[in-house]
Amino acid sequence: MVYALGNLRRRRTRSALTIAGVTLAITLLVILLSLSQGLKGSVDDILEETGVDIFVFGVGWDPIFGPQTDFINGREMAAQMEQGPGIRATVAMLIADVYAVNATDATRIEQGENASAVDFVTIQGNGFVPEKASVAQFGGVDFLEGGRMHVGEDPHWANGTYDGPWTGELVLSIGAATDLQVGVNDTIYVGGRLPLGTFDAQDWLNRSQPFVIRGITQATFDQPAAETAFLHLSELQDLTGRKNDTINEILVDLYNPAEADTAKDWIEATFRDPPVVAITQANFLSSVNEFAKTFEGLGTVVVLVTVLVATMFTSTILVLSIRERSREIGVMRAIGLSRKTIFEMVLTEAVAISLLGLGLGLAFGYLGAVELNSFLKGYTGSFPSGFEFTRFSMSLIGYAAGIALALGVGSGFIPALKASATNIVSVLRSE
Question: Per the CB 3.0–4.6 Å rule, which of 133, 208, 240, 265 could disulfide with 191?
Answer without folding.
Answer: 208
